[in-house]
Design a protein that fits this description.
The chain is built from 17 helices and no strands. With 416 residues, the protein is an all-alpha fold. It has one domain. Helix 2 runs parallel beside helix 17 and helix 11 packs antiparallel against helix 12. The radius of gyration is 23 Å and the shape is globular.
């Protein structure tokens, strides 16, 4: 029995290894993604800032992720830091985060690719998974960043098993969801987002609609099983009430209200040029799918393309719009960056033959990715300047304290 299981595992391992190695330029793709992420994140790493929670963890060595039911983060920190009393080991933690993002990005490219050679444009299109403005805060954390990036990866890995038996695929989906919830819950929208676009792609590739619906059902069922197991068997109550969801009666209305508030923030955060580029990519996604659809199928493709965009925009923030105490910080909104990446990847892959090259889509995609790439340097340099100013203020306070004649028997508290 054990021998059969071992042989089965070895067989599956070789199968997935051959799938990945079947792409002729897989090594070059890995190097490209690693290089881009490292260069983009270098200013953030160079700034060497203890970002928010990093200060307490660096000073006292506590972990504390179990307060938010992130038990996998707590557990893995023992190995990453080689101690239960964690210390600052940056930039190792950020390099680990980069490795997770590279693997996640590459899996997405492979799953949405129709050729055995990965296009440079596919690699560029997928970069917002890690380079979106909202993920920059995640990589700023010296202690949290590996687990935030890992949550992205485990949300994507189950897609590799979609051709396996129903039980295996649903089990992988449930396990991936549980791992996501116990590392960083802001990734809760990534799996349904990718499933939505992947099912649409399978349908466009002449798969019958029933098979696509079965795939969606299996994915949704596995995802819900994972969420249910986490909620009722794993999740600890949060004293602050941050994990309380609306009742079923209130949920539809409040979810939409919170979703609108999220997109108001996006509208404020995004430069007008970014918005024009993104709207152009969305239009091209719908237009190109419709133009290249078969006769008699164009209307339904048009409607489904719009529907996919609406669903993607609705689920990319995960479960956070369903929370009573809505979390609205950049690090909770990076699902929108994953939406942009999947959208651009699908748009650039619509044209399967060289004769149908679309230079407009490449121009829009390159423009948006370049904007995000440049922002990484602006953000990293801003962190550096901000830290210098904080140090300067602390030095002023300490200098003034030295000039004050304080009774040594008197207890004084100074808040900085």
């Amino acid at each position: 029995m054990m021998m059969d299981i071992k042989l089965k595992i070895n067989e599956k391992y070789l199968c997935y290894k051959n799938l990945i190695l079947s792409f002729s330029n897989i090594k070059q793709s890995l190097i490209f993604l690693t290089l881009i992420y490292c260069v983009a994140y270098y200013p953030i790493i160079r700034a060497n800032v203890y970002y928010q929670d990093d200060i307490g963890r660096a000073a006292f060595g506590y972990r504390g992720w179990d307060n938010y039911s992130r038990y996998v983060s707590n557990f893995l920190s023992n190995f990453i830091h080689a101690n239960s009393h964690i210390a600052d080991i940056s930039p190792l933690t950020q390099l680990i985060a980069i490795s997770f993002l590279v693997v996640a990005s590459l899996i997405v490219v492979i799953m949405f690719s129709d050729k055995k050679k990965i296009s440079i444009w596919s690699l560029i299109a997928v970069l917002p998974i890690g380079l979106s403005p909202y993920f920059l805060e995640c990589i700023s954390y010296k202690f949290d960043s590996p687990y935030m990036a890992l949550s992205v990866l485990v949300s994507i890995v189950p897609l590799l098993f979609y051709k396996e038996d129903t039980i295996i695929y649903m089990g992988a989906s449930a396990l991936g969801t549980i791992l996501m919830c116990t590392t960083y819950q802001a990734s809760s929208g990534i799996f349904p987002l990718i499933i939505c676009f992947f099912a649409f792609k399978k349908w466009l590739d002449d798969e019958d609609i029933l098979s696509s619906f079965i795939f969606i059902f299996k994915s949704a069922f596995g995802y819900l099983i994972g969420l249910i197991i986490f909620k009722y068997l794993i999740m600890a109550p949060d004293p602050s009430g941050n994990n309380v969801m609306y009742s079923l009666f209130e949920l539809p209305k409040e979810f939409i209200n919170n979703l609108v508030l999220y997109y108001k923030v996006v509208n404020q955060d995004f430069d007008y040029k970014w918005k024009y580029l993104l709207i152009g990519i969305m239009f091209l996604f719908v237009f190109s799918n419709t133009v290249f659809a078969k006769k008699g199928k164009k209307t339904i493709v048009l409607l489904n393309s719009i529907l996919v965009l609406v669903i993607g925009l609705s689920v990319c923030f995960g479960l956070y719009p369903a929370l009573v105490n809505r979390l609205q910080t950049p690090r909770t909104m990076y699902g929108f960056g994953v939406f942009i990446a999947i959208l651009m990847l699908n748009t650039v892959n619509i044209f399967k033959f060289d004769v149908y090259k679309n230079y407009i889509s490449r121009f829009l995609i390159l423009g948006l990715c370049w904007s995000f790439f440049v922002l990484c340097f602006v953000y990293g340099n801003a962190l550096n300047v901000q830290q210098k100013y904080i140090d300067y203020r602390i030095q002023l306070v300490l200098s003034d304290i030295n000039k004050i004649n304080i009774d040594s028997n008197e207890l004084n508290q100074i808040d900085i």
